[in-house]
């Protein structure tokens, strides 16, 4: 059965590759949804079957094949990888990507016909990427000053994630076949190797951090999560679900590693070390408020017009509340993967990013806390690629499907589990008396 589903997955990936090659956004979305349907059948089958080495080998073989297919078309649905190549090129030239926009005359000798014309906002935007990402771009430049080098690096990091998740599953004595949840999911396949997004690096760092945590290596978990947070800042929200209270090795390792990663760049960049991030957030509508879908929805339905500042404050309170529960509910040697997944999903829901690759890191958490809502949350994210709503469906309705319903289901599921475990603990205490 898995072999047949694997063949269907290969065919769906080939169809998606054709759509990417022709920049057919609706075609890619349809192929991704078909891929998602096959993927769900595979996950259901894995949970019903007893694990076997042959099945695990088949899962990994299909995972490698579909990733190879995703490398065949150019990354036509995103221009981010062009900026990665450029940032590596600028660093190799001895300049800081935090100080120079690509169109700066002093960088004219670096321009070419393959990379420079495709850089987004090249006339006004310095880089937005933190130091760990920039170090990665520099390493990729040493391997080759090209899109393919960047994509191969991201694919390699994607494979690191698979290996780290397998090791973590083994350490937790969970079935290794569960790796299908990550290895066959369309988001890592297309957003990492296929489009070369740097989220592959933060996801690999998260997976390595999880592996360190399940093995009781709090210092190594802190190092890994510092690397993840300095690829993109948001993985820090997962730390409360990993940190052992009164054990300061994790936060200390996190702070020291972050400082060391900043050192090569802060000397030249100074206060510009966050680059274009602030302006980028304004471009995405966060400054005006409409970038947050809950605000957009309230405005669209003419219910209210909340201030973005008030919304951010409320969002931080919600995330802080979930983080506190995750921290207090963590027993000795126990990691609450369900609360970690809820923390990550809550961040995605509250910030409502406009691009599917921001959902991808959640997939690395799902083998440890599989929940139907998490599958819906991530598998529906390619709808965000659509250039405009099809057939009279509004963007509000699309976002309700992508964000609101799955997140509500996930929240209710985790809440029910918390209530159930509390009642069980009370019953056990009463029995002991």
Mean pLDDT: 88
**How many individual β-strands?**
0
- How many discrete structural domains? 1
Which parts are unreliable, with pLDDT below 50 for 5 consecutive residues or more? none
Summed up, the helix count is 18
Q: How large, in whole angstroms, is the Cα Rg?
A: 22 Å
**Could you give the order of the helices and strands?**
HHHHHHHHHHHHHHHHHH
Question: What is the 3D form?
Answer: globular
SS-based class:
mainly alpha
Task: Tell me about this structure.
The chain has 433 residues and is mainly α. The chain has one domain (2-432). Helix content is 64%, strand content 0%. The chain contains 18 helices and no strands. The protein has helices spanning 2-21, 25-48, 53-70, 80-92, 131-143, 147-171, 180-183, 186-194, 199-214, 218-229, 249-269, 277-283, 293-300, 308-328, 337-351, 360-363, 372-379, 395-432. Helix 6 packs parallel to helix 9 (199-214). The radius of gyration is 22 Å and the shape is globular. The N and C termini lie far apart (51 Å). 45% of the residues are buried. The model has no long low-confidence stretch (mean pLDDT 88).
């Amino acid at each position: 059965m898995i072999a047949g589903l694997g063949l269907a997955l290969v065919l769906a990936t080939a169809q998606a590759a054709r759509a990417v090659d022709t920049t057919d956004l609706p075609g890619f979305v349809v192929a991704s949804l078909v891929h998602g349907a096959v993927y769900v059948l595979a996950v259901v089958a894995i949970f019903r079957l007893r694990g076997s080495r042959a099945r695990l080998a088949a899962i990994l073989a299909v995972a490698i094949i579909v990733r190879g297919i995703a490398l065949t078309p150019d990354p036509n649905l995103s221009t981010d990888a062009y900026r990665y190549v450029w940032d590596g090129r600028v660093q190799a030239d001895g300049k800081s990507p935090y100080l120079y926009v690509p169109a700066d005359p002093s960088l004219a000798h670096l321009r070419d016909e393959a990379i420079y014309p495709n850089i987004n906002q090249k006339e006004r935007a310095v880089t937005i990427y933190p130091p760990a990402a920039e170090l990665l771009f520099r390493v990729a430049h040493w391997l080759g000053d090209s899109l393919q080098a960047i994509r191969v690096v991201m694919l390699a990091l994607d494979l690191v994630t698979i290996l780290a998740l397998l090791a973590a599953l083994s350490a937790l004595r969970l079935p290794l076949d569960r790796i299908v949840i990550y290895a066959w999911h369309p988001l890592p396949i297309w957003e990492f190797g296929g489009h070369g997004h740097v989220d592959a690096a933060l996801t690999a760092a998260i997976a390595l951090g999880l592996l360190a945590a399940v093995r009781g290596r709090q210092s190594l978990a802190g190092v890994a999560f510092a690397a993840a947070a300095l690829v993109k800042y948001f993985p820090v929200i997962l730390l409360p679900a990993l940190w052992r209270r009164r054990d300061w090795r994790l936060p200390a390792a996190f702070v020291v590693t972050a400082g060391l990663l900043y050192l090569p760049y802060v000397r030249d960049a100074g206060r510009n070390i966050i680059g274009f991030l602030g302006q980028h957030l304004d471009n995405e509508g966060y400054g005006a408020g409409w970038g947050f879908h809950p605000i957009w929805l309230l405005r669209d339905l003419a219910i209210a017009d909340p201030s973005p500042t008030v919304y951010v404050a409320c969002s931080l309170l919600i995330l802080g509340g979930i983080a506190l529960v995750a921290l207090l509910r963590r027993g000795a040697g126990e990691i609450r993967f369900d609360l970690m997944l809820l923390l990550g999903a809550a961040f995605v829901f509250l910030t409502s990013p406009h691009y599917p690759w921001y959902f991808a890191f959640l997939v690395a958490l799902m083998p440890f806390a599989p929940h139907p809502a998490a599958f819906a949350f991530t598998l529906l994210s390619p709808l965000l690629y659509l250039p405009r709503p099809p057939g009279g469906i509004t963007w509000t309705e699309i976002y309700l499907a992508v964000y609101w319903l799955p997140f509500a289901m996930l929240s209710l599921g985790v809440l029910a589990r918390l209530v159930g475990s509390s009642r069980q603990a009370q019953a056990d205490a009463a029995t002991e008396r």
